[in-house]
Design a protein that fits this description.
The complex is a heterodimer. Chain A contains ten helices and 14 strands. Chain A is an alpha/beta fold. The radius of gyration of chain A is 24 Å and the shape is elongated. Chain B has one domain. Classes of the chains: A alpha/beta, B mainly alpha.
């Protein structure tokens, strides 16, 4: 697979001296959903803004579809669509007019059929003649996505696409994004909702304090860094951890009703069999058991915390 | 050249004018008509002719200039300030469009609007006052050149302004006084010698004078100088625009 976006040595120092990006290298394959995670102020929006031409890079280069975003900005930008974080709207315009404007701005000739298709896909077609100020927040968000799709981009940037969007709408939006990916559009999204990255992304990049800390296939990342927990609900609460169980990575919940065993799901030997036999030797019986895998969120929090 | 983008912005901006027809056309036409009635009809009937032209007819070119200037300025300034203010400018900055094309689209739309308005006011004036136009092509040239120049100036103000107050500041505090003191309502020969000299530093004197010459063939300063001064101001605005383009001033960090 060819890389559609190639970022090398990209850094940004703002006029005030704030370093927002420190030599970021990143390559994104065509047709994947890439989730960029990071705490507030990590540099996510700066990175997107540079690629889309809103912010000037201090150093480094970006190639979009093989075109340099500065030297060959026309070719580069015409294949990029951007959905900004803020719900910015020209309140007095209609949905149809603003989406048509977007298509023209990106150098495409009029195509009402395409605009109709985009609006229908985002359930906005009924609202095509409505003024933007009459739209709800969720509709405005979809309207911004429609604007970004009006010129049939190959790369779509979604900067916090589901901030302030209700659960149902978020799921609808995920479906739209997946459909786009299936059509071959490369999608790069930033998000606070790690659940979103976990649900959607093929690749995950974690950025903190302007540095790209890791880029990994999501499944691989979860596998590598994921820890599993086995929870045993005890039949009779324990006052304290029996001596035979100390030092095996076991924890007793405060009220003594549950034993929590944390293990590495990657390990050759998880130690579960051994644990269970020790439990029966000590006549500790349980009524229920469950396992859980750490979420991307926990992985993320751990990574970011370790860097501090 | 991204022709589609220029056209899209131009059409979008013109649509804005049609949507706000009352504010963008009707209100300036009505307020200018009051000038014709009050200064031309009521007061003008008691004033002698100036350079062989009745006072009511004398003030028409200056009044058209006044509307042309303020409308070009405010239209172009608002046109680019509004997207900056609400944030929709992101789309223009991320589009495959050069700054020159953005300027052509916005300034073109603003100039089209103010030229149309100038012609409507001219038509309205001819209902109140007998008007003759001795040099119609020069008249049109002044109209177009001034509209473009001041739309460029307005565009610069719109980029410079970071508040609505600043957006209003230049048209209200500088341009309107300069137009009133620029010989719209009198010939500068009527001023005492000191003020006559001082007035020559007012760039609008040259616009009003040249424009009036195209109507009645009389002028305070020669028409060649008027054209040269308009050209000079146009060049100044183009230089400022070029500098903004080079540095991304107030648009990109």
């Amino acid at each position: 697979m060819a890389a559609i976006l190639e970022i090398s040595g990209l850094s940004k120092v703002y006029d005030g001296g704030f370093t927002a990006l420190k030599s970021v290298d990143l390559s994104i394959e065509k047709g994947e959903i890439f989730a960029l995670l990071g705490p507030n102020g990590a540099g996510k929006t700066t990175l997107i803004s540079i690629i889309c031409g809103l912010v000037k890079p201090t150093n480094g280069t970006v190639l979009a579809g093989g075109h340099d975003i500065v030297r060959d900005y026309r070719a580069a930008r015409s294949i990029i669509g951007l959905v900004p974080q803020e719900l910015t709207t020209d309140s007095f315009e209609t949905v149809w007019a603003t989406v048509s404007l977007s298509r023209g701005l990106f150098g495409k000739s009029k195509n009402p059929a395409h605009i109709e298709k985009v609006l229908k896909a985002l359930s906005l077609y009924d609202k095509r003649d409505a003024k933007l100020m009459t739209l709800s927040g969720g509709m405005k968000r979809r309207m911004l996505i429609a604007k970004a799709l009006a010129h049939e981009p190959d790369i779509l940037f979604l900067d916090e696409p589901t901030a302030g969007v209700d659960v149902q709408l978020r799921r609808d939006m995920w479906n739209v994004v997946r459909e786009l990916r299936d059509q071959g559009v490369t999608i790069i999204l930033t998000t606070h909702y790690i659940e979103e990255a976990e649900e959607m992304a093929d690749q995950v990049g974690i950025i903190n304090k302007g540095e790209l800390m890791l880029v990994e296939e999501k499944a691989e990342l979860m596998r590598k860094l994921g820890r599993k927990q086995l929870r045993l609900a005890l039949l009779a609460p324990l006052a304290e951890l029996p001596e035979a169980l100390v030092g095996r990575g076991l924890e007793l919940r405060e009220d003594g009703s549950e034993l929590i065993y944390t293990y590495d799901s990657q390990g050759e030997r998880t130690g579960i069999t051994r644990l269970l036999s020790v439990l029966s030797e000590n006549d500790i019986r349980f009524k229920d058991l469950s396992t859980s895998q750490s979420s991307l969120e926990e992985i993320f929090v751990n990574l970011v915390r370790n860097q501090r | 050249m991204n022709f589609h983008a220029v056209r899209a912005i131009y059409v979008y901006e013109m649509a804005r004018a049609f949507r706000t027809l009352l504010q963008s056309v009707v209100s300036p036409v009505i307020s200018t008509s009051f000038y014709f009635i009050v200064f031309g009809g009521a007061i003008g009937s008691r004033i002698d002719q100036i350079g062989g032209v009745s006072y009511a007819a004398f003030i028409v070119p200056g009044l058209i200039m006044l509307s042309l200037l303020t409308q070009s300025l405010t239209n172009a300034a608002f046109g680019i300030y509004f997207p900056k203010f609400v944030g929709t400018i992101y789309e223009i900055l991320s589009a495959p469009i050069s700054f020159v094309e953005v300027v052509i689209a916005y300034v073109g739309a603003a100039a089209t609007k103010s030229i149309t308005l100038g012609l409507i006011i001219l038509g309205t004036a001819s209902l109140f006052v007998p008007i003759r136009i001795e040099h119609p092509f020069v008249m049109l040239a002044f109209l177009v050149l001034t509209a473009i120049t001041f739309s460029l100036f307005g565009f610069i103000i719109g980029i410079w302004a970071d508040s609505f107050e600043k957006l209003q500041l230049v048209p209200l505090l500088i341009v309107t006084p300069l137009t009133f003191l620029g010989g719209s309502f009198y010939s500068i020969d009527m001023l005492p010698p000191f003020w006559r000299t001082a007035t020559l530093f007012n760039p609008l004197v040259y616009l009003v004078s040249g424009f009036r010459w195209s109507f009645y063939g009389t002028a305070d300063v020669s028409v060649g100088i008027s054209l040269a001064m308009t050209g000079l101001f146009l060049a100044l605005c183009l230089t400022a625009i070029w500098w903004i383009f080079r540095t991304g001033w107030r648009l990109k960090t």
